[in-house]
């Protein structure tokens, strides 16, 4: 693992945004032949969804775009702050939570994924979980695709 780059995507529950970002990033790496050079995962800041699969709507949107997700929700750990160089939060609350639990001296960088939108659009990837229908999940897919 020493030669690999590492990225962890984090949201509140780890069943929507972060798992979609993880799946999209892994797909991009595979397309570019770089999957062996990266370790990628996702996690939650909360305990709400630990052990659950991704939201059915997230799975459906990813499948619509030819991508799959194989993930079980988990909470971020202290070890993650050593294991992953780049830790991407989806919104400002995620960033605040990550900074609060980051161990002192940790080498990881906490970054807001939305800051990397080449179109200069919103830097927040809104949580689609409490919204109805597929559109909010499609928006998350589009946002993650444009930033990765």
Describe this structure in words.
The chain has five helices and four strands, in the order E-H-E-H-H-E-H-E-H. Helix 1 (17-31) crosses helix 5. 34% of the residues lie in helices and 15% in strands. It is an alpha/beta fold and 148 residues long.
The helix tally amounts to 5
> Strand count, sense and closure of the main sheet?
4 strands, parallel
Q: What is the oligomeric state here?
A: single chain
Q: What fraction, in percent, of the residue positions are helical?
A: 25-40%
Please count the beta strands (DSSP E, at least 2 residues each): 4
Separation of the first and last Cα atoms: 22 Å
How would you classify the helix and strand content by structural class? alpha/beta
Record the strand order, biggest sheet: 2-1-3-4
Q: Under CATH, the topology is which?
A: Rossmann fold
Give the SSE string. Answer: EHEHHEHEH
Proportion of residues in extended strands? 5-15%
CATH class: Alpha Beta
Spatial shape: globular
Low-confidence stretches: none
Average pLDDT works out at 94
Rg over CA atoms = 14 Å
CATH architecture tag: 3-Layer(aba) Sandwich
What's the number of domains?
A: 1
């Amino acid at each position: 693992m020493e030669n690999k780059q590492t990225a962890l995507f984090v949201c509140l529950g780890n069943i929507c945004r972060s798992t979609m970002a993880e799946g999209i990033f892994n797909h991009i790496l595979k397309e570019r032949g770089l999957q062996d050079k990266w370790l990628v995962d996702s996690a939650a800041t909360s305990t709400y969804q630990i052990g659950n699969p991704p939201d059915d709507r997230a799975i459906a949107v990813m499948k619509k775009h030819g991508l799959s997700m194989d993930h079980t929700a988990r909470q971020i750990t202290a070890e993650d702050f050593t294991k992953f160089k780049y830790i991407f939060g989806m919104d400002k609350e995620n960033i605040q939570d990550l900074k609060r639990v980051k161990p002192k001296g940790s080498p990881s960088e906490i970054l807001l994924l939305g800051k990397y939108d080449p179109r200069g659009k919103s830097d927040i990837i809104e949580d689609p979980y409490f919204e109805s229908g597929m559109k909010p999940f499609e928006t998350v897919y589009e946002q993650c695709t444009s930033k990765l």
